[in-house]
Amino acid sequence: MSEKIVSIKTYAIIFISLVVLTVVTYRVALIDLGVLNIVVALTIAATKATLVALFFMNVRWSPRLTQLVIAASLFWLFILLALTLADYLGRGQGWTHGLRYPAIP
Amino acid sequence: MAETDTLTTSHSVALVHQFDDPQQQRQAGELGMWVFLATEVLFFGGLFAAYTVYRLAYPDVFAAASNELDVRLGFVNTLVLICSSFTMATAVYNAQKGNRKFLIVFLCGTVILGLVFLGIKAVEYAQKFEHHLVPGLHFRMEGADQSKAQLFFSLYFAMTGLHALHMIIGAGMIFVLILMARKGRFSTQYHTPVEVGGLYWHFVDIIWIFLFPLLYLLGRSTAGH
Hints:
The structure holds two protein chains of two kinds. Chain A is mainly α. In chain A, about 70% of the residues lie in helices and about 0% in strands. By secondary structure, chain B is an all-alpha fold.
């Protein structure tokens, strides 16, 4: 019946974690890790986003239906990105030519 | 007549008749916001997809163009937004506890931090105009393919601009929440607008959490080499 009230202490811990992760992501970006730079950056960003969603947005205590809507939105985002990349990268060598001069059928 | 009386008294004042109880009403409101946020994920998702494709196509130009951005201001703005998310969460907590005074204090804090973010963003945009980094007739970036570098800045302005628009709407929304709180419209029983507003505000924060590394940090490791 009653809603879950998250304590200020929990919010403070999440807040400090977010600040620490922001500093970490900046520091790591200064080091040349090659391809891993973007992997680390996106992993940290996804972690931060998850912390905000689970605790600040109370998703951890949300009804199943709400969690399903969130999962669906992420799945649709995955379709958007995956099919777009499958198209462009699937064109093989020289796929960038189509970008600068849009192909006219 | 007696039955109507018991019905009205057993229900909270703010409960609309189509809902069984305050919990169902609150969850319906939150679900509605989440469905809207799902459309927002795809709204921003289109821009993120465009960014991904062009960055994969021109990684070096994107890295060089990214280094033209002011990473310090971007970093400070990230912290400002995280602080504003914390004050928003605290505002929701005080709404749940029925503490009107602190609800208003933390809502005001959130709006102020939101305006600080927008102020810093305005300073950044002004710098881009001064440095001829705004796509268009006067665009000029040293040592890079002009059309490709313009692509990066087009995406930069589109993504941060759309984000800033959301911040402006969010600030207006919290301002309305402050007015409602001052009128005593919220109670421990009914404070859904504060929670739903909080969801929107945190979502805008999440978008920035991704924009910061993608726009400001992608070329840092090769800067100055």
